[in-house]
Known about the structure:
By secondary structure, this protein is an alpha/beta fold. It has two domains: 9-77 and 146-201 and 285-328, NAD(P)-binding Rossmann-like Domain (Rossmann fold); 89-142 and 202-284, D-Amino Acid Oxidase, Chain A, domain 2 (2-Layer Sandwich). 27% of the residues lie in helices and 27% in strands. It is built from eight helices and 15 strands. Strands 3, 4, 5, 8, 9, 10, 11, 12 and 13 form a nine-stranded mixed beta sheet that branches. A six-stranded mixed beta sheet has the order 6-2-1-7-15-14, covered by helices on one side. Strand 1, helix 1 (16-27) and strand 2 (32-36) form a beta-alpha-beta unit. The longest helix is centred in the first third of the chain and has 19 residues, at 60-78.
Amino acid sequence: MKGAAVPDVAIIGAGVSGLTCGVLLAERGYGVTIFAEEIGERTTSAAAAAIWFPYDAEPADKIIPWSLVTYERLRLLAEQQNTGVNMIELRSLARRGEIPIPDWAKSLGAQFVVSPVTVGLSDREQKSASQPVFSSGFTMSVPLTDTTRYLDYLRDRFSNARGTIREGVRFERIGEVPRPFKAIVNCAGIGAGELVPDRELESHRGQVAIVSKLDLPWAVVCDDPPLMYAIPRTRDCVFGGTNSTSYNREPIRADTDRIVAECSRTLNIEPPPVIATRVGLRPFRKSGVRLELDKLSDGRPVVHNYGHGGCGFTVSWGCAEDVLKLLLFSPNPP
């Protein structure tokens, strides 16, 4: 089918997983069409803080290798212009007790933050900060993707490789993908729950507040309740967040107020203006990420690639490489 008028691989979903798979396959010479109900700013990926960090996904023995592959791919992209990727210092902090440095973080040079752990916009402000001190933390350099710029970069790269995106398409079942496509890659995210269907998927709702640009020298993440993170970007800063089981995609004012108040208190600043509020539904799969080869009743191979929870960006390239391997070794490779 390569070189034919009809593309031979269909990808369902235009979030970071679908676009990354699309780029990898199209640049390997496959004819690829991405089918998506929503693209760009309307996807869950667009609402992500998108800092590299394994979060809210299982199992660890698969998540970490995928994450490390992606780390290296994103690190290289950070050296290029106009990708939307840059390297940033990340401080992972705890309000109580001693936070250990995971083995995977040690391999990337993570080090303990000198105690007492404080957070401010400058060293001078840290010394005079009156906010509660974190009990422990570690610091490391990680990739950060500006979602708007990075998703645009992936779409442009996909298009340059002769890939096609069909927007506004919703399949009720995966078998509805037109027959001329010889293989299917399922990157439907939370939509895979109905598409497959899969009762193991549950929606972990994440809401963030986009605030005006802050001179924050590092990104801050604290997973202790209440969840808090502040991710500085080129033109703004992402304040977060929430992680509740819900399918509600509408912003909740009380959540925004709480997020801004907690981040401002932690950073020891006045609450900055809120530019926008975004909500994404993290596709958490209780039995772990589903990345495996399946087959439709008509014999076409399907590679499922969904259930990445809160680390879709973090595992994107590692998962895409495994998708390619599964397609190559499927009984009827396209």
